[in-house]
Each structure stands twice: as structure tokens, then as C-alpha cells.
Amino acid sequence: MTLTWEELGWERVAAGVGRCRLPGWDCTAGLVLGEGTALVVDAGSSLAEGARLRARAQELADHRVTHLALTHPHFDHVFGAAAFAGAEVFAAVGVDAVFTRDREELRLDAVRNGLPAAVAEEAADALVVPRHLVCGEWTLDLGDGRQVLLANVGPGHTAHDLAVLVPGEPEVVFCGDLVEESGEPQAGPDAVPSRWPAALDRLLALGGEDALYVPGHGAVVEGGGGGGARAALAPRGGGGGVWGGGRATR
User: Fold this and answer.
1) Are 177 and 217 in contact (CB under 8 A)?
2) Which of 39, 49, 188, 230 gets the highest tally of CB atoms within 10 A of its CB?
3) Can you give the C-alpha Rg of the chain in angstroms?
4) Rounded distance, CA 153 to CA 97, Å?
């Protein structure tokens, strides 16, 4: 018997494309299936959560996870990355420096936001610098005619924001935290508010008005919703004071 995406804990977004909302911080993880390949978008907030996410993806794909894309370097999106041993890991240029230079700050931020100290320390110690760093755009061939575009669209939510475009009918764009549906966009000390509207313009140029936009937190935003997010953020672009201090995550 073939189980559906929903029966295996995923929300199907398009053919061979789905996502799930992880507990705790309501962080979205994505899954794109190819021919003998599986791309996971974001890794969860701990090694245990990453391992559960990988197991769920592999149960649906019926083969191992081959690729992992990290949309930005915040703990709720990257601390599970080491659980994807053997996968090719992609991130925006500069994430390598964050993982090397700011590992302790990532750990502290996780603890400040409620992750148990021992869990945060374990995940921070296990962080491995992504092998593939995306400067402009990078096309992944997942087989069976499926190609996925990784686009370095930041800075915005962080200095290193990566979007994932999955062509099809409809097109699907995994936005990371450049777009949030479940609350106000979070802008912490590593955000670049003056550049955020331009990053949203690049997202819209990738997917267009008819795409489905998958935010880092919250429900999928249907066609034109990305434009709504852009319009909401535009007045804030020039004034860092509007954003306040905020959390680094979400």
C-alpha cells in the first residue's frame, strides 16, 4: 500500500514537493523528491529533530536524503544539519564563516530561546561547514527532469539568505524567514532591514505572482502573497529603529 504525504506527516504542496511544520518554533522544513534523490530544505533545531526529519523524509522517498539546503544560519533551521551525514549541504556564501566564527553565539541564542543547554551545546559542537556555498544561483539536477534552483537572495532576514525555487505547476519557492505567515517578520541583530525589501523583490522575480511561497514559519502563501509580504515590509526598509532589537531567530 502506498502511503500519502499527509499520512507520513507531510503537507503536499506540489507534485513531488512538500513541507512540514516542526514543533517548538513552528519552523518549516521542505522536501523535494527526484529520481533516487531527495532534497531537504532546513534541518530543524537539534540533532534529534534533524534525525526525525531525515527519517520521515526517507520513509516517504524510499531512499536516503541526498541533498540539504539551509536557508539561513539560525539555530532553529540549522542545528539538525549534522544528522544528515552523507548529504550534500548547500548554503549561502558566508554561512561558513558564521558556523566557524559565531558558533558560540548560535548556541547562546538557542538557549535564550528555550532550547535546553545540553541539546544546544551538542548541536553547536556538531555543526559542519556546508560544502557547497551559493554566491549567485546554483542549479541542482535531482534526476528525472527535475531541477531545483538555489538562489542567494539576501541580505535581509540575515546577511546570508538562500531561497529554493522548484519549477513546476505551480512553482514553489521556499523562502526561509524572509517571509513569515504566522506572525510579524523577526529582525534580530544580524538582520539587514534596509536590504530586506530588495530580497523580497528577488523572491518575487524567482517565482512570480502565481507561485506558492513557503515561509519559514506559518502556512503556505498562495499566488501574489509574496507581493503582499513585500508591500508590508517596504515602509520599514529604511529605518532600523522600526524593527527594534528582536530575537536573532525566527
Assistant:
1) yes
2) 39
3) 17
4) 18
State the pLDDT at residue 193.
92
Integer Cα distance of 52 and 72 in angstroms: 20
H or E element at residue 79: none
Task: State the Cα–Cα distance between residues 65 and 86, nearest whole angstrom.
Answer: 8
Burial, 97: exposed, middle or buried (Cβ in 10 Å; 0-12, 13-18, 19+)?
Answer: middle
Sheet containing strand 28-33, edge to edge, reads: 11-14, 17-21, 28-33, 38-41, 67-69, 88-92, 132-134
d(CA 207, CA 201): 10
Q: What is the pLDDT of residue 248?
A: 43
Mean pLDDT, the chain cut into blocks of 10 residues (250 residues total): 85 96 94 97 98 96 97 98 97 97 96 97 96 97 95 96 96 94 76 93 91 94 58 40 34
Cell 555543526 -> residue: 127
Other C-beta atoms closer than 10 Å to the C-beta of 60 total 20
Q: How far is the C-alpha of 43 from the C-alpha of 234, rounded, in Å? A: 30
Bridge partner residues of 92 (DSSP) = 134
CB 30 within 8 A of CB 173: no
Alpha helices in 90-221 (DSSP H): 95-101, 103-112, 117-126, 196-207
Q: Which helix (H) or strand (E) holds 162?
A: strand 162-166
pLDDT number for residue 78: 98
The pLDDT value given to residue 230: 52
Whether the Cβ atoms of residue 205 and residue 168 lie closer than 8 Å to each other: no
pTM: 0.90
- Eight-state DSSP code of residue 220: P
